[in-house]
Design a protein that fits this description.
CATH superfamily of the largest domain: HUPs
Shape: globular
Number of domains: 2
Bound molecules: adenosine monophosphate, tryptophan
Oligomer: single chain
Number of strands: 5
Helix content: 40-55%
CATH class of the largest domain: Alpha Beta
Strand content: 5-15%
Structural class: mainly alpha
Radius of gyration: 21 Å
Amino acid sequence: MRKKMISGIKPTAQLTLGNYIGALRPFVLSQEEYDVNVFIANLHCITMPIDPEELETNLKDVLLFYLASGLDPKRSNIFLQSDIPEIAQLGFIMSCLTPMGELNRMTQFKDKKDTGMSLSGGFYTYPTLMTADIVIHQADLVPVGEDQKQHVELARNTAERFNNRFGETFVIPEPVIAKVGSKIMSLQDPTKKMSKSDKEGEKGVVYLKDDLKVARKKIMSAVTDSLGVVKYDVENQPGIANLLTIYAALKNISIKEAEAQFVDVQYGTFKKAVADVVCDELEMLHEGYDKFAQGGFVDDVLRQGADKMRPGAQAMLDKVQKAMGLDWK
Ligand code: AMP
Ligand code: TRP
């Protein structure tokens, strides 16, 4: 039987090249081998304040970029997290099985807490909802970027804890991290992740919606170094290493193969080659986005996705409630 894969993206802000290389593209490539299920994590999105109109726009955008990237609704299930209310219900149950000590150790939580901003209870229990997202569908594999690995590991621990206490119920999921591109860095500060919520770092972030000229300019002005050799050396040449990663990931080659193509090549020429592959990919995405935006079948995709996924989620929640003694039937 094909292994079951699940993953999601939060419709928080405009999707970036990091999201594409670390998540969207691996989802699409997985369709050859796995039973692929992807969703739009709209509940995770409200763990931080967000304007309703912005959320609605981003939500449609994530779906259109899923389709434009090549996710095929005939082969894969694409759905909206909140269309399956059993997920939030199981999320509460999972939060009761997760020690606060484990939640306190999550780096995403710690990083935000350290900024001193006021955080919601929902943000704190973010990883327990993510656990429910994964285990309710009995998923074997969870492809994510490096930053989400710790959350998938928490989901594994919680599923194991449940099975030990209440009997074999959940499949234990495994995180899958792309060999190349699991952490694309900012073009302006290559020691920091390229992040869609990086408001100050617009120049360091390529958005999937960026005009090709704008994207090209961002790549051409990416921070490099004065060493003048195109080599993968994260410590001493983080900017060049990041550009090599972007190039290798989009070309589907190894970093070594990418390096070999740029021996004795000047930074300007190298950057142009990176900008060319990025712009080709963006052009393909923009064409797909426009085509699907006009197609008018976006609602159908989400409805069908939820219709296919919900019965399994309901059965799983029933099983959990019975195992825990919550059910009176
Ligand atoms: P998010 O934008 O946090 O909803 O992330 C959606 C998916 O994209 C997750 O699997 C992330 O790990 C992945 N992702 C986000 N930013 C990057 C990045 N800079 N490089 C690689 N993967 C990323
Ligand atoms: N937390 C993930 C992110 O920020 C999105 C997400 C929510 C997710 N639920 C998930 C990813 C379940 C994989 C599986 O990127």
